[in-house]
Amino acid sequence: MQAKIYSPTPANLRRLAGALRRGELVALPTETVYGLAADALDAKACRAIFQAKRRPANDPLIVHVLDLAHAEELAEFNPAARRLARKFWPGPLTLVLPRKACVPDIVTSGGRTVAIRSPAHPLARRLLRLAGIPLAAPSANLFGYISPTEATHVADGLGQRIQYVLDGGACTVGVESTILDITDPARPRILRPGLITANTLANFLGVAVRSRVRRKAAAKPDAPMAAPGLLERHYSPRTPLRLKRSVGKAPADVASIHLRKPAGRTPRNVYWLSRQGALGEVARNLYRVLRLADQAGCREIWLEALSNEAGGLATALADRLKRAAAKR
Ligand code: TXA
Ligand code: MG
User: Where exactly does CATH 3.90.870.10 map onto the chain?
Assistant: First the structure.
């Protein structure tokens, strides 16, 4: 199999929607990262997602829908969840809710909840509309590697394993959606931080929003995860990555990644995530620059650590960096 990257012409969109309806896999852009999509109601198609990504079966998938009405066909919404969907969808907020019976076990890893979001990316929405089915889609990378934010990233990782990649350019958010467990509306819990922050959600809901309790990676690889998928090591380059307070004096055989562009001419193997430190720009560039640094053939990558004290998007970024740098 050799992946082909499709430009978003009307004919190509119809073709890819047809492939999805036939149970095939299509990588598509969302505002956060590229997803590897399949018909969420087709267990066989969803199994193929796990195979293509080499993803363990106990790590459930996020289902993408056009709107709240479609989401309610798959999950039991409570009033708080409905309010959240009306306010933040389409957008980078995933809601974890009790599943309905039509959702195949493979999607939820056999669990009683399903994760759902309505993506904002216009091309993801056009495919959802044309295909007319909910789409299960994890990030379109090999399990554990850096998430893709451009079509070529998808082809680099999954090029031999899937056929269709829809090109939507670079993702505008750049880190994965916030995942909120809202099965108990009195005790909402963030399972993965993202652009939409705990504070924003707490203010909107008028209740405290807890962040997930940090725990060690699942002890038994086959056991269902208590908080699925939230492994200590994730989003990782192959080159050993170290977080450092300062990356200024890295040796020549180390790739260094600065938060802001260093002054003057920069030598080889020096990268930066933003011009002036704006977090939105850091988020948009993070995965692309990590991939570049990983391809530089260096002994190590040094990445300027980001303090998560600032809250907001800094929390999401610090979370990803920590996992990317976690030891094997
Ligand atoms: O922004 C995003 O969310 C992207 C785009 C493609 O939508 N998707 C994404 O999917 O990041 P993935 O599979 O790479 O990460 C989904 C996370 C996993 O950690 C998984 O364990 C968790 O969501 N998850 C899925 N279903 C869950 C559930 N029912 N309960 C708790 N966590 C769940
Ligand atoms: Mg992922």
Answer: 4-211
